[in-house]
Design goal:
Helix content of chain A: 25-40%
Number of domains of chain A: 2
Strand content of chain A: 25-35%
Number of strands of chain A: 10
Order of helices and strands of chain B: HHHHHHHHHHH
Radius of gyration of chain A: 18 Å
Oligomer: heterodimer
Structural class of chain B: mainly alpha
Number of helices of chain A: 9
Number of domains of chain B: 1
CATH architecture of the largest domain in chain A: 3-Layer(aba) Sandwich
Largest sheet of chain B: none
Order of helices and strands of chain A: EEEHEEHEHHHEHEHEEHH
Radius of gyration of chain B: 20 Å
Strand content of chain B: under 5%
Helix content of chain B: over 70%
Number of strands of chain B: 0
Strand order of the largest sheet of chain A: 6-7-8-3-9-10
Chain lengths: 246, 267
């Protein structure tokens, strides 16, 4: 299958302390990959590098066949993201934000596309409302609508359902799965909700202290390491990563 | 350069201003107050000074042009600050926008907002205090060009300073015009300054504008060569300010400051 994202030997240090230390992975077309690990494992650093808002010390990131370092604008036009810590500007309405970001991503037939994502994420009632007055769940839906505007080949989601109620989170998971299955998108997903990861992701990558520790199918990986659940495996990664190193 | 992305920055600024009374009023209010204050002062000076010299084009015209520079500079910085205030860097810089497009968007936003202020100032100065901009003749074009370019350069430099040092550094930026004005000779000839201050004036393009303005008002001619030098100097400053902004941006990408901007520093 075609790789939409190829990350090779990525390294990033802050003042001599490695945040990401030789991470390599691929995300293929139609695939949802979970990037997991305890706080400080290097997940957000990795995502920030892929988003082009942080330069790696060494290593490469390719979106399709475009090197992010030399073709930043082209690579980023094929991606989009939503992160719980980066809401849309609260001083613009949902519709205004979507128009502005649609222009930034070079979306064709922008007016129609804005209407489509507003409908898709059930934001019609909030179209003319400023994002700052929306509840955190509504803001997350607005961010996801922005993330889907350009029908990205690569979608980066950093804890996208963290502030959603279980019903809305379930709806969002369905939409993301549909996006990957029907529209050919590749998704890199971080979450601390292991049940969600097990349900949504085709493959997971566990990071610990900036390095890839484990990789595999979230439904079979716990058994391979003598654990009953993904959550149990996660806790072991967080507390005793050395016990899992090959 | 993709015009759509430049337009996005401009449109964002339009949306913000359209929906906000507190953003609309400052576009013309303070410049208008300045015109009224200096208008009455010049009117008073005309009554007490020796007849034959008109303070309106000399002082009120100079203040109008200086306010034009301030509007342009603040137009750039405020458009940039909107991203600072709304913590929007990650959203914006994770899009395909190029840094040249972003800066072009800030400049266009500044032109749009400055026009409103200029119209208000001209209205007050011309109709209330009988300022005739025709007094300056065609020289008004290089005057405006120099101040426009210098305003852009200081605005872009100010944005780079805030990007480098964090949101609190915006308080370094607001007083910049006040720091520059004594050296720029807005209200008095550069020769009034002590000798040690004059070299600073020589490297400030607005000083050539205000020297030229006073020469015209006194019945002489503006020095075309000096004004050309002022235009070239302004262009150089625009180039340098842009290079500084790019360097600071690249440094922010390398250090991680852009991704964690609200932390202000990485230490």
């Amino acid at each position: 299958m075609v790789s939409i994202l190829s990350v090779r030997d990525l390294r990033k240090s802050y003042g001599g302390t490695p945040a990401v230390d030789g991470v390599s992975f691929d995300v293929k077309k139609n695939e949802i990959v979970g990037l997991l690990g305890p706080n400080g494992a290097g997940k957000t650093t990795t995502i920030n590098i892929v988003l082009g808002v942080l330069d790696a010390d060494t290593g490469s990131v390719f979106v399709g066949d475009t090197d992010l370092r030399t073709g930043r604008s082209t690579a980023l036009s094929r991606t989009n993201f939503a992160a719980v810590y980066t809401p849309l500007p609260g001083n613009l309405t949902v519709e205004e934000n979507l128009r502005v970001f649609g222009l930034l991503y070079g979306v064709k037939r922008l007016k129609d596309r804005v209407d489509e994502v507003i409908s898709e994420f059930d934001l019609e009632r909030f179209r003319k409302k400023k994002c700052g007055v929306l509840s955190s769940g509504e803001q997350t839906r607005a961010s996801l609508a922005k993330a889907m505007l350009n029908l990205p080949e690569l979608l980066l989601l950093d804890e996208p359902t963290a502030s959603l109620d279980p019903a809305t989170a379930g709806d969002i998971r369905v939409k993301i799965r549909e996006f990957a299955a029907r529209k050919g998108g590749a998704v890199l997903w971080t979450s601390h909700n292991m049940y969600e990861v097990e349900e949504v992701c085709d493959r997971v990558i566990f990071l610990s202290r900036g390095r890839t520790l484990l990789e595999g199918n979230p439904r079979t990986l716990p058994g391979e390491y003598g654990k009953k659940t993904l959550e149990e495996l996660f806790i072991t990664v967080a507390r005793e990563p050395l016990s899992l190193e090959v | 350069m993709a015009f759509g992305r430049v337009y996005a920055i401009l449109l964002r600024q339009f949306y913000l201003i359209r929906g906000s009374f507190s953003r609309v009023v400052p576009l013309f209010a303070w410049a208008g107050v300045d015109m009224v204050l200096w208008g009455f002062l010049t009117r008073y000076l005309n009554t007490v000074a020796a007849p034959g010299f008109n303070f309106v084009p000399a002082l009120l015209g100079a203040v109008l042009l200086w306010d034009f520079f301030i509007r342009i500079m603040q137009g750039v910085t405020i458009a940039f600050f909107e991203d600072v205030w709304s913590r929007n860097f990650l959203n914006v810089f994770a899009t395909p926008i190029k840094i040249s497009e972003y800066v072009a968007g800030l400049v266009l936003s500044s032109v749009g907002t400055s026009v409103i202020g200029i119209v208000a100032m001209l209205f007050i100065a011309c109709f209330m205090f009988k300022l005739s901009v025709l007094v300056y003749g065609l020289m008004a074009i290089p005057f405006i060009l120099v101040l426009f370019l210098f305003g852009i350069s200081i605005g872009v430099l100010g944005s780079a300073i805030v990007l480098k040092f964090g949101p609190a550094a915006e308080w370094f930026i607001w007083p910049l015009p006040a720091l520059i004005s004594p050296f720029a000779g807005v209200l008095y000839p550069v020769s009034t300054l002590p000798v040690w201050m004059r070299p600073v004036s020589w490297i400030l393009p607005p000083s050539y504008v205000f020297e030229g303005l006073r020469a015209i008002v006194s019945g002489g001619k503006a020095d075309g060569t000096a004004l050309l030098f002022g235009v070239c100097l302004s262009l150089l400053y625009v180039f340098l300010a842009y290079r500084v902004f790019v360097k600071v941006y690249k440094n922010a990408l390398r250090t991680g400051l852009l991704a964690r901007y609200s932390a202000e520093t990485l230490s």
